[in-house]
Amino acid sequence: MSAGRTISVIGLGRVGLPLALCFADRGMRVLGVDHDPRVLEAIRAGLLPFNEAGTQELMDRVSGTDRLTLSERAADAAQCEDIVITIGTPSFSHLESDLSQVRAALDDLLPLLRPGHAVILRSTIAPGTTEFVAGYLEKHRSLRVGEEVFVAHAPERIAAGRFLEEISTLPCIVGGVDEASTERAAGTFSVVGAPIV
Prior knowledge:
Elements: E1 6-10, H1 16-25, E2 29-33, H2 37-44, H3 55-62, E3 68-71, E4 82-85, E5 91-93, E6 96-97, H4 100-109, E7 118-121, H5 129-141, E8 150-153, H6 163-166, E9 175-176, H7 179-189
Parallel strand pairs: 1-2, 1-4, 2-3, 4-7, 7-8
Antiparallel strand pairs: 5-6, 8-9
Helix pairs in contact: 1-3
């Protein structure tokens, strides 16, 4: 992955914020997006809004650099080439997730998506959701997935309280809707140093 590539992380909760900090700590330019002003205020003050072992030290290294900027608007994520979505997806049943927040983020992004963008889902989602997102983008923007834009899923598998221990050692599973999307997402996540599967 080129050092000039930029990454946005939509959703700065227990999954998204440590990931955004990790990318920034490894030299990437990251835009963190969250709609909660209290979360953004804490991060701007250099404070972690929740407890996660060792992550405050990561915050301390990144705070005050130009590698992490913040926004409350999902549409701003389109400023970056790689868009990682870590928004909550509560379950309706054991195989059905509430994708309303993911869809709202996609709707904000739709008018701004352009060839070269990658949309990578990191949220917990049901089987078939990645394909749904790819079809949604093609239907509403006529962008060819796998050629113009890339869509993949890289599920979060790290145990609570063990982010720093596991982010660079636990294999990162990546699945794209096609080979080009898989390779693009693998390249994005390769910066954290974990084996890519």
